[in-house]
Amino acid sequence: MVKDVAAQLVVTRDYSLPLCMRLRYEPSDPYVVRATFLPTVTIRVNGSSGVIFWLVA
């Protein structure tokens, strides 16, 4: 089962970043819900845009 959810990453009290969170559940692993975070805006670093990897631990 896969479900896309709109979310916001709150950085400070005054700044947040909208993003889409894709949740994935597999019955073969019933105790895990996997989350993939996808930015909804283009972020440029040093003049180029690319894939953003999120690590939540």
List keywords for this structure.
mainly beta; two-stranded antiparallel ribbon; 5 strands; elongated
Describe the structure concisely for a colleague.
The protein is mostly beta strands and 57 residues long. Helix content is 0%, strand content 53%.
What does the overall shape look like? Answer: elongated
> Quick check: average pLDDT?
78
Euclidean distance between termini CA atoms: 23 Å
Q: Tell how many strands the DSSP assignment holds.
A: 5
User: How many separate domains make up the residues?
Assistant: 1
Q: What structural class do the secondary elements suggest? A: mainly beta
Kindly provide the radius of gyration, computed on alpha-carbon positions and rounded to a whole number of angstroms: 14 Å
Multimeric organization: single chain
Query: What's the arrangement of strands in the largest beta sheet?
Result: 1-2-3
Please trace the helix and strand order, writing H or E for each element.
EEEEE
Low-confidence stretches: none
Strand content: over 45%
Total DSSP helices:
0
Percent helix range: under 10%
Largest sheet geometry? 3 strands, antiparallel
